[in-house]
């Protein structure tokens, strides 16, 4: 499929720095940042509520319907922790941000997440759940998956430079 500008999926466990990275990427390029968790909240793209974690459970079909028309024309940075429901033909590059357990623990504590939610996310990072989820869909479709560390400012600069290179050479 040909798009004038690429769609880039930026995924990873909550707290790895997806939104921080995507904001910087959008500011340094002509790509549009789609913060999916915010769309889920604002457009109420959920039908269920997780009582234990006190958060919504996004509805895959509702999120697909909201995202697909935006991705058709290209030039989007999709910022979300989940990716297996996305249509691989709409994605040109997958970036999986990774951090050390201690980094993630500190960031989520600062966010005042309840202990159970901190623990669940730290475990998800240890088990590389987001990476595996992305591989499930995009590996077979031969879409590049870049796993990149994101503990420090320097890591972010490196990742930005690499992704901007991809954007420049796209098409
Ligand atoms: P996510 O969108 O993946 O949940 P955020 O972008 O909200 O993560 O970042 C979580 C916290 O980590 C924020 O306080 C942010 O300032 C910090 N952070 C993000 N990326 C980095 C980085 N590369 N180096 C240091 N701190 C970072
Ligand atoms: Mn975020
Ligand atoms: Mn767009």
UniProtKB/TrEMBL annotation:
Sorted UniProt keywords: ATP-binding, Cytoplasm, Kinase, Nucleotide-binding, Nucleus, Ribosome biogenesis, rRNA processing, Transferase
Record-given protein name: Adenylate kinase isoenzyme 6 homolog
PANTHER family: ADENYLATE KINASE ISOENZYME 6, POS9-ACTIVATING FACTOR FAP7-RELATED
Entry's localization field: Cytoplasm; Nucleus
Oligomer status and interactors: Interacts with small ribosomal subunit protein uS11. Not a structural component of 43S pre-ribosomes, but transiently interacts with them by binding to uS11.
Record: residues binding ATP: 15, 17-20, 111
Reaction catalysis annotation: AMP + ATP = 2 ADP; ATP + H2O = ADP + phosphate + H(+)
Location of the region described as NMPbind in the Swiss-Prot/TrEMBL record: 35-58
TM region(s), chain numbering: none
EC number(s) reported in the record: 2.7.4.3
Annotated region (LID), positions in chain: 110-120
Family, similarity comment: Belongs to the adenylate kinase family. AK6 subfamily.
SUPFAM superfamilies: P-loop containing nucleoside triphosphate hydrolases
UniProt xrefs under CDD domains: AAA
InterPro entries according to UniProt: Adenyl_kinase_AK6, P-loop_NTPase
Entry keyword Cytoplasm: yes
Function statement: Broad-specificity nucleoside monophosphate (NMP) kinase that catalyzes the reversible transfer of the terminal phosphate group between nucleoside triphosphates and monophosphates. Has also ATPase activity. Involved in the late cytoplasmic maturation steps of the 40S ribosomal particles, specifically 18S rRNA maturation. While NMP activity is not required for ribosome maturation, ATPase activity is. Associates transiently with small ribosomal subunit protein uS11. ATP hydrolysis breaks the interaction with uS11.
Major location category of this protein: cytoplasm
């Amino acid at each position: 499929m040909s798009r004038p500008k690429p769609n880039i999926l930026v995924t990873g466990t909550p707290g790895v720095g997806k939104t921080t990275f995507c904001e910087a990427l959008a500011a340094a390029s002509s790509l549009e940042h789609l913060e999916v968790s915010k769309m889920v909240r604002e457009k109420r793209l959920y039908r269920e509520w997780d009582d234990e974690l006190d958060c919504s459970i996004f509805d895959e079909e509702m999120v697909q319907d909201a995202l697909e028309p935006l991705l058709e024309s290209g030039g989007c940075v999709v910022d979300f922790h989940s990716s297996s429901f996305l249509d691989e033909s709409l994605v040109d590059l997958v970036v999986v941000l990774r951090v050390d357990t201690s980094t993630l623990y500190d960031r989520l504590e600062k966010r005042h997440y309840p202990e159970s939610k901190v623990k669940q996310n730290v475990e998800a990072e240890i088990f590389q759940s987001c990476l595996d989820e992305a591989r499930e869909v995009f590996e077979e479709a031969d879409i590049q998956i870049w796993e990149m560390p994101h503990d420090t400012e320097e890591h972010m600069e490196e990742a930005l430079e690499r992704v901007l290179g991809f954007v420049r050479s796209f098409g």
